[in-house]
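[#protein-structures] MJ: dropping DUF211 domain-containing protein here for a structure pass
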Amino acid sequence: MTVPIQRLVLDLLKPHEPGIVEFAETVAACDGVDGVNAVLVETDREVQNLKLTLEGDAIDAEVVEETVEELGGTVHSIDEVVCGERVIEQSETPQDR
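AK: finished. structure tokens for DUF211 domain-containing protein:
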């Protein structure tokens, strides 16, 4: 039984080209993705570090990672995954303080 992914947050590296707008638009075009938020975390001479937040009804994480790689990027880590029929927001715990 496969449970749909509704939110996926990725930490990734990408080359300067394509730019952040084209990068976000291309990932947003993946099946199951309804929207993408791309935040530039850091930039240096050769690469940019992005935080990419995707939301949708049934995100295919493998297709997203393949798309990132086709654009010249590399997924460093998956920082958040929300699965199931509804989105559950993170709750604050004592460890978060």
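MJ: nice. The chain has a mean pLDDT of 92.
AK: one more thing. Helices lie at 20-28, 61-70.
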